[in-house]
Amino acid sequence: MKKILVPCDFSKPAINAFRFALDIAARSKGTVYLLNVIELPVLHDTVIMPVLNFEAELMKELKEKAEKSFAKIIEKYSAEGVKVVGEVVFGPPSREIVECVGRQKIDLVVMGSHGASGVREFFVGSNAEKVVRNSPVPVLVIKDYTNGSIRNIVFPNTLETEHQEDLTMKIKAFQAFFKAQLHIVWINTPLNFSSDTETRKRLEAFANRFMLKDYSIHIFNHRDEETGILEFTKMVKGDVIAMATHGRKGISHLLNGSLAEDVVNHTRGLVWTYSLKNEFVEA
């Protein structure tokens, strides 16, 4: 985790993400890339001033304002020995964030989020949710700042075979970086029921196959997966939930949703996600 991207709109969650990223970069001797994305309004020509001239002046003013804000938070929070690079771009936030990941060869996105719920979640979704869906690298979503210490990682395991190796290797690297305990959990629900004996056997086989260390295996019964994950995490005092997302888009996303994105929206804790479908399509 040498190159860490923090999308920054200067809100409290974004500042929390920046502080957490600094903690990680101090440990990895890495660089934090701050990205401010300005989404310009649609402007129409007027008799007083041509649109292009107005847009140029507005863009210049907004960029200078963002750069001054960067300077303030870097001065206030930056850690000794950690390089911080600021960049201001214009465009749709989720698309610009994912493009920056490729341009700067980012290893991890650390993103602040207010979350989303109700009608807003269904029709729009948060920017964090869109980045989780489309990012080609892991995304760590944060709402409240912690001191950068992760001791317990909750890994809800679906025991799917497709893409399991890539996901698990990334979670292993994340666990090793923080020297954390891994809590592998199967959420047993009425709609996806499996006997404890059979499930435990499969989870043990999974752990042995990937030569996992410092882990525990759990079977947690609940009426639905999302609430089960959140309640289990609280029970074991998990610091972060590590999950895959299938990156569903369009009609598929509306019909099937995403468990990882729901967890991102509804928990106050840290959520680490990795998209199993990395081709970007603007959400």
Q: What features would you highlight for this structure?
A:
Rossmann fold, 10 helices, alpha/beta, 10-stranded mixed sheet, 283 residues, 10 strands
- At CATH level 3, the topology of the domain at 1-145 is Rossmann fold
Q: Terminal Cα separation, in Å? A: 27 Å
**Main β-sheet: number of strands, strand sense, barrel status?**
10 strands, mixed
Oligomer designation:
single chain
Strand content: 15-25%
The residue-averaged pLDDT reads 84
Question: Can you tell me the residue ranges where pLDDT is under 50 for at least 5 consecutive residues?
Answer: 116-125, 248-257, 279-283
Question: Any overview of this molecule?
Answer:
- It is a single chain.
- Helix 3 (93-104) crosses helix 5 (127-134) and helix 8 (225-235) packs across helix 10 (259-266).
- This protein has ten helices and ten strands.
- It has helices at residues 12-28, 51-77, 93-104, 118-123, 127-134, 164-178, 196-209, 225-235, 250-256, 259-266, and strands at residues 3-7, 31-38, 83-90, 108-112, 139-142, 152-156, 181-188, 215-221, 240-245, 270-275.
- Strand 2 (31-38), helix 2 and strand 3 form a beta-alpha-beta unit.
- It starts with a strand and ends in an 8-residue tail after the last strand.
- The chain is elongated and about 65 Å long.
- The protein is of the alpha/beta class.
- The protein has a ten-stranded mixed sheet, with helices on both faces.
- It is 44% helix and 22% strand.
- It has a domain at 1-145: HUPs (Rossmann fold), CATH 3.40.50.
